[in-house]
Amino acid sequence: MKFKTKQLSKRVFALFLAITLMAGTGVTAFAKEQTGTDALMPETERSVSENDEKNTADADKEEKETDSEEKGKEEKEKDEKDEKEGFKPGKEGEDPLETYNGIPTEWLEDDGEYVYSEEAGSYVTEDAFAKTSTKKGVQGDFNGADYIGSYGGQHTLLNLRVTDFMGDGSIHTDKRFDYNGRTYYFRDTFSTLIRSANAKGATVSMTILVPYQSNKEILIDSTALANRGNNTKNSPYYAPNVRGEGRHYYEALFAWMAENWCKADCHVDNFILGNEVNMPNSWCFSGSSDPQYNVDLYTDAYMILYNAIRSKTSASRVSVSLDHSWQHNDEGRGISTKDYLDRFNAAVAARQANVDWSISYHLYPAILSQPDIWVELAHMPDAPEIDLNPKRADAMFVDGNNLSIMTDYVKNTFGTQHRILLTEQGFSQYMGTGIQAASLAYSYYAAKYDPMVDCFIINQANEGGKLNFSIGGVLAGDVFARLDSDPAWVESQTLPVIGVSSYSEIVPGYGRVVNRAQVEAFVTRLYEMCLKRQPDESGLADWTNKLCNGQISGAEAARGFFLSDEIKLWNLTNEEYVELLYNVMMGRASDAGGKADWVYKLNNGVGREGVYRGFAESTEFGNICNDYGIIRGSIKVDGLEGRDKNPGLTTFVARLYTKALGREYEVDGLNDWCNRITSGQWSINDVSTTGFFTSPEFLAKNLSNDEYVKVLYRTFFDREYDQAGYDDWMNRLAKGTSRNEVMLGFANSREFAELKASFGLR
């Protein structure tokens, strides 16, 4: 259902505002002037003085002190008065200053109409990046201006400076927010822009920045503050204070963002915490160059933001901002992006499992003023012999020339669920507009045909001197506008500059065309065979979009079906589950031997995701994917339960429970032992011996030597004892050989090695 409403005239709105204030709304619209750090303090931590003018801050305080019976009486009188005046208040909990007849006033557009969707107010559930038809986008500015539609783009980025966003209740855009017993005010100048971008079908990325402001120092980390004098590179932004009192503000701010900017009609699609945080001296000052300190400090803040957003939606990304210094650490003053990423992933995993972090990467040329990236820029002043951006694993910088080095690393190391968003890149005019246009086109096509990349947003600011990134009025502007619509013309203008005959020579996958009808058929097949029904329209579109855009592989798509809540409702037996896998993933009925092996694994500790992974990575499923023109892909080990990482190992550890302890495994214990082995913390022999035979549970059995030796035979040899061997071990024990020595004799034997090999282990 949709409806339209006429625009409020200024006169009517003024009357409405006056009526609201006179009625005693209980909402602080205007607060007394505040200066210093106190201006930032929560309402509950401020001293609010009374005065004869009865300002709204006093009204708010008085309302809090009124008992519930009196408050109810006042609200009833107010409602009666509003009804007489023709004013209809908004729903319970709405700020009357922000609503008219239940509709937010900021939603009343200048054209006199507002189209209201019945979905407004619900949280966003669909990935906005999957629904766009281009990866092109243009940055907005600090004043909140967006450039949706510029040059045919469908992506924009806005920068939010926390110091500007922290209000005090003194103006209409200050939004009151009560959180954890405290009252905050957030100065919202972005919601209208976000909502406008959403309505145009564009994505919104937002960078959250912490500049220095003397009266808001509580927002900045204490180490950064203490070392401000060492900010020799004049870093404009600082590490947030999440280890002191400032943590309260960030928890409240991020909770407010999640509640207000994760809505179906007002959603930020990519929240970016900080700017180039791997450069703690240049762009995100922390007061320290120690890599691990910086990563840990940042991760603490990141997890607050991530969990706030995830409490409302899984459709929005939460990204770490990294620059182009792939393996270059700014002579020790920064951290290389690759090193930072490895440390960040480990730090996140240590705090919380299955965090689907993303990267907001800045794809600038290695040397900002020299955009001729195709020459591999072999002229670093202090190392002229080094190629800065070659298409090799040892590249110091990653730009449009060698983008796949970074994206392949992320894909192969962490998995395709970790998306890459190119949210800032600029191309200087300094070497001429022809080179500027060629570098822009080359970089964009590298991003367009890389399935790990979801957007390409350019910075077109003129920063003066050699750093004029503007594309307006020059060849680069025309090229950017026609990148998707007229690639032949773009090629004619840019390829001669680069010196190649086709972008296919330098861009992997260039010109690859995805047949949407084929992809839809693949998705439909999954619905029909896995769920036994026809696809719903939104589900079909969502899966198809993600496959077409390269956000997921065929293996990841099928995983979503086989592990769905819908299929779980069927309560399939292990035999039925395996048969379904054969039918869908291999296009045939099972063979008796293969089916028996997979069912055995399921019956002996392996989870269904572990078994699914085996089918997903089969040649037969690869052939099915090829028939539909999609990439098979794989299921990365990261994020899997320990028991699903190596089915052979899992069944081996499961039998240790039955042979050594005489009982069935518990899933948590099985996962723990398998994780210790796959991570390299423990060897298989260590787990088999120390892990089980010296455990309190085993020792509590108080076995005799006879019983002990027999258990060793069953555990390490998988058989009953032979008399000669049994007698030998018993004699050794009788003569003083320790049980530990006897156990190691079994563990280091050839027979135990052969047993491990039968499980695919060594």
Description:
With 762 residues, this protein is an alpha/beta fold. The protein is globular. The chain is built from 29 helices and 16 strands. Residues 1-69 and 81-120 have low confidence and may be disordered. It has four domains: 2-117, no CATH class; 130-362, no CATH class; 516-636, Phycobilisome linker domain (serine acetyltransferase, domain 1), CATH 1.10.3130.20; 664-758, no CATH class. The longest helix is centred in the middle third of the chain and has 20 residues, at 291-310.
Low-confidence stretches: 1-69, 81-120
Largest sheet: 8 strands, parallel, barrel
Number of strands: 16
Please identify the structural class as seen in this structure.
Answer: alpha/beta
Number of helices: 29
Provide the number of structural domains: 4
Helix content: 40-55%
Query: What is the molecular shape?
Result: globular
Strand content: 5-15%
Distance between the termini: 64 Å
* Spatial extent as radius of gyration: 31 Å
Task: Name the features.
16 strands, two-stranded antiparallel ribbon, serine acetyltransferase, domain 1, 42% helix, alpha/beta, single chain, 9% strand, 762 residues
In a nutshell, what does this entry contain?
Helices cover 42% and strands 9% of the residues. With 762 residues, it is an alpha/beta fold.
Set out the fold topology.
Elements: E1 2-4, H1 10-22, H2 56-65, H3 68-85, E2 99-100, E3 103-104, E4 115-117, E5 136-139, E6 155-161, H4 162-165, E7 174-179, E8 182-187, H5 191-199, E9 203-209, H6 222-226, H7 247-260, E10 262-263, E11 266-267, E12 270-273, H8 291-310, E13 317-322, H9 337-351, E14 358-361, H10 403-413, E15 420-425, H11 433-448, E16 453-458, H12 475-482, H13 487-498, H14 516-531, H15 537-548, H16 554-562, H17 565-568, H18 574-586, H19 592-603, H20 608-616, H21 619-627, H22 647-661, H23 667-678, H24 684-693, H25 696-699, H26 705-717, H27 723-734, H28 739-747, H29 750-758
Parallel strand pairs: 5-6, 5-16, 6-9, 9-12, 12-13, 13-14, 14-15, 15-16
Antiparallel strand pairs: 1-4, 2-3, 7-8, 10-11
Helix pairs in contact: 7-8, 8-9, 11-12, 11-13, 14-15, 14-16, 16-20, 18-19, 18-20, 22-23, 22-24, 22-26, 26-27, 26-28
